[in-house]
Design a protein that fits this description.
Elements lengths: L9 E2 L16 E5 L26 H4 L2 H9 L7 E5 L4 E5 L8 H13 L6 E5 L16 H28 L7 E3 L2 E3 L5 E3 H8 L2 E3 L24 H6 L14 E6 L7 E6 L1 H4 L4 E7 L2 E6 L2 H10 L1 E5 L8 H11 L11 E9 L2 E2 L7 E6 L4 E4 L5 H12 L6 E4 L14 H13 L3 E4 L2 H7 L2 E2 L2 E10 L2 E12 L13 H6 L1 H12 L8 E9 L13 H18 L4 H8 L3 H13 L10 E10 L2 E10 L6 E10 L6 H20 L5 E2 L2 E2 L18 E6 L16 H17 L8 H4 L1
Parallel strand pairs: 4-5, 10-20, 18-19, 23-24, 27-30
Antiparallel strand pairs: 1-9, 2-3, 3-4, 6-7, 7-8, 10-13, 11-14, 12-13, 15-22, 16-21, 17-18, 17-20, 22-23, 25-26, 26-27, 28-29
Helix pairs in contact: 3-4, 4-5, 10-11, 15-19, 18-19
Length: 738
């Protein structure tokens, strides 16, 4: 045909698409590219190794945990679902949990850019649990990094098929066509929408144009500011979270729990509770007694009327003070310092810390004889499915998990206790249930960032840093939530210490040239349930490093910023630090009781620096101003990234100055935000400026951001406090111990 390419498109029915006169039976174009040989896959190793220096690179600088996640997903990275409907909407199922970090919006931006679709008509929904993605986890700031290449390749492939379909319809060269706003456009002005072409494009097996993703420099949406697509729904209360899920016949359910950590039922009597208005059923479960009623109020009233005798928990008689002493005893000794060598040693202690996300843990379950349907906002849905299967006796292949949006997590939703409990109650009552944990339930019976102790020692001679040692002792972090699948499931269940060590060395980084550096971790099971908390090991280790480095600089008579610049071996961290130092006019004279503090962090192939100003002259310390600079390689949604850094500052302030959990005689002391002292509005700085460095180069790749900011923000706040008060905090939160 005149004007056509000399190549013939191969179609799925071995016929030329040009000969098809009726549309496909399919009403939309659907790509499910599992095992597709035509999908262009990118390397799972990103970033360059650090420049040569007197300090050898750590493993985390070469292969970090997000790399491990990408490697684990590599066999099925292309198992993604993109739909283009006849109504000309694009829908992508995201195999991750959007828990408030905004990744659904970020992927909508990426898809619209790569596919040339109309952003306003590009929708990202959260995928149900998929058995064909056996390791699929939301965590460690890896969502954008792990899916960057697969999603771009998927969209490039889809765009090529759409262009090919238009070329065959119009008998023109595919290379002469362009795409924009969900349409294919010919040089003569003819236009066909993606929706109009979807059926024909679905039949194209080999496109007539390359399927290579665009260079980053050609993106027009990525790297800009966009409001979250569901922002209006969130602020108007119409966003659907787990408890908003409408499942016919699902009845409100709550659980009576032991006062002790890990306590269990010895005996119980539910006669009075069962006779109360609205009560549908009372079910004993491993963690307590569940009550189902027609309303949550009726369920709570009946729960409180239960007569229960409790067995003591495994840590009855213990306190966090005794546990801190245990950590002191098990930590490995630091290397003695040689005579005539300058040195500094310090110990930092961090408390147990609840995740305290805004949306409480909850789940909806409908369990039948041989199947289970669960609605639960999970970071690790396949792990939760396995737990539900184990507890109910239903095969995991028959467990369906729907993933709603979540109102926060910080690592808590890596586990699925609420889903398992809901499934057990639903099975016992033979009806769907809507189970809610109260704030008190999760604060006293949930999971916590491990209690930790950091021992650090540095030595120097004649201005040169000779060594830097950091030994951390901590309550064992529970990784039995799917992360173990990144190596082997047996590695977690059989040798938990081995897996934790691998996680540790791939999650930490010390971006400084400090001579002979070493980091060691020793963990011990202390009986308090734990889970990864935002930034995992760096949340305590890097914070301690940055506070220690500030003190070391002063002892060695260096300016704190200048000392870091002399030793940093991360170019991204250096430029972030230089930026905030200039923006905040570092070193300027400030009134008595006020001071500036700085800190940096480099991890996830990203870097961040904070400079904060603090006032300690009032009844409690208060932030005045904050400056942040962040380099994530390719920032997708700039406003979302800025919001992440602002939120990280508030979280960092909270955990270092106000919030922490205590164990008293085997029980968690705190029960709500009334005694778990998170920051209030009065603690926010008057101004916060966040600078996001743009992508550089056509081959730039994204780093991680979700967990990046909190470590540097937390340390900068403490460093400002130390300079303002001429003290050196060692135990946190500051306002409890200082």
């Amino acid at each position: 045909m005149a004007g056509r390419s000399d190549r013939t498109a191969v179609t799925t029915d071995d016929e030329s698409v040009a000969t098809i006169t009726s549309p496909s039976r399919r009403s939309f174009l659907q790509y499910s590219l599992a095992g597709s040989a035509t999908l262009v896959m990118g390397s799972t190793f990103v970033g360059d190794e650090a420049a040569a220096s007197i300090s050898l690179p750590e493993l985390g600088e070469i292969l970090d945990f997000p790399d491990v996640i990408a490697l684990a997903e590599a066999p099925y990275a292309s198992n993604l679902l993109l739909e283009i409907t006849t109504g000309n909407r694009v829908r992508f199922e995201l195999p991750r949990l959007d828990k408030g970090q905004g990744i659904a919006t970020a992927f909508a931006m990426l898809i619209a850019d790569e596919l040339d679709s109309d952003y306003e008509r590009t929708d990202v929904t959260l995928s149900d649990r998929r058995a064909d993605r056996p390791f699929s986890i939301t965590g460690n700031s890896a969502a954008i990094r792990a899916l960057w290449d697969p999603v771009r390749s998927l969209c490039a492939h889809a765009r090529a098929r759409l262009v090919t379909a238009a070329a065959l319809r119009w008998s023109v060269r595919a290379s002469s066509l362009r795409t924009s706003q969900s349409s294919v456009i010919a040089t003569d002005g003819r236009i066909a929408t993606y929706g109009e072409l979807s059926a024909e494009a679905a039949r194209v097996a080999i496109p007539l144009i390359p399927v290579t993703p665009k260079p980053v420099s050609q993106y027009k949406i990525v790297g800009t500011k966009r409001a979250r697509k569901n922002a209006r729904a969130i602020v108007t209360g119409t966003e659907k979270y787990t408890l908003d899920t409408s499942v016919a016949g699902a009845m409100p359910t709550v659980v009576a729990r032991a006062p002790d950590i890990g306590g269990s039922v010895l005996s119980w009597n539910g006669a009075v509770a069962a006779s109360m208005p609205g009560v549908i059923g009372i079910v004993p479960i491993p963690n307590g007694i569940a009550v189902t009623a027609q309303t949550f109020k009726q369920a709570f009233d009946a729960r409180d009327a239960l007569q229960i005798s409790w067995r003591p928990g495994p840590v009855r008689g213990q306190s966090d003070a005794g546990m801190r002493n245990t950590l002191r005893q098990i930590n490995t000794p630091l290397t003695p310092v040689l005579p005539l060598v300058g040195s500094l040693s310090a110990t930092f202690e961090f408390p147990y810390l609840a995740h305290a996300m805004m949306e409480v843990m909850s789940a909806v379950a409908d369990v039948r004889d041989q199947s289970a349907e669960i609605w639960y906002a999970s970071q690790s849905p396949n792990f939760v499915a396995a737990q539900v299967a184990q507890s109910t006796g239903i095969p995991a292949s028959k467990v369906k998990i729907h993933i709603p949006f979540a109102g926060g997590s910080f690592g808590r939703r890596l586990f699925g206790e609420a889903a398992v409990e809901a499934a057990l109650v639903s099975k016992a009552l033979r009806m769907p249930v809507k189970l809610m944990w109260t704030r008190n339930d999760d604060m006293r019976h949930g999971r916590f960032r491990p209690l930790s102790r950091c021992d650090i020692r540095a030595s120097w001679l004649a201005g040169a840093t000779l060594s830097y040692e950091h030994h951390i002792a901590a309550a064992r972090n529970d990784f039995r939530h799917g992360l173990g699948d990144a190596l082997t499931a047996a590695g977690v269940n059989v040798v938990p210490d081995l897996f934790n060590q691998v996680g540790f060395i791939t999650m930490i980084s010390l971006p400084y040239r400090f001579g002979n550096t070493s980091s060691k971790l020793v963990e011990k099971e202390l009986g308090v349930p734990t889970a990864s908390w935002r930034s995992v090991y760096s949340g305590v280790m890097t914070v301690a490093n940055e506070i220690f480095i500030d003190e070391m600089a002063r002892i060695r008579r260096y300016d704190e910023v200048d000392f870091r610049l002399r030793h940093l071996d991360s170019a991204a961290a250096e430029r972030c630090l230089r930026y905030v130092a200039a923006a905040g006019a570092w070193g300027r004279t400030m009134p008595r009781g006020q001071a500036q503090g700085v800190a940096v962090h480099a991890e996830y192939r990203s870097a961040v620096a904070y400079l904060v100003e603090i006032d300690t002259t009032g009844p409690e310390p208060r932030l005045l101003k904050a400056y942040c600079a962040v380099d994530v390689g390719v920032p997708v949604n700039v406003s979302g990234l800025q919001a992440q850094m602002q939120g990280s500052l508030i979280d960092g302030w909270s955990v270092m100055f106000r919030a922490g959990n205590h164990v008293d005689d085997g029980r968690i002391r705190e029960g709500s935000f009334g005694d778990f002292h998170w920051a209030r509005m009065r603690h926010a700085p008057v101004t916060t400026q966040v600078h996001v460095f743009p992508a550089e180069g056509s081959n730039a790749e994204p780093g991680g951001a979700g967990e990046l900011g909190i470590t540097a923000a937390a340390a900068a706040c403490v460093n400002a406090y130390a300079r303002a008060t001429k003290t050196q905090p060692r135990r946190f939160p500051v306002q409890e111990y200082d």
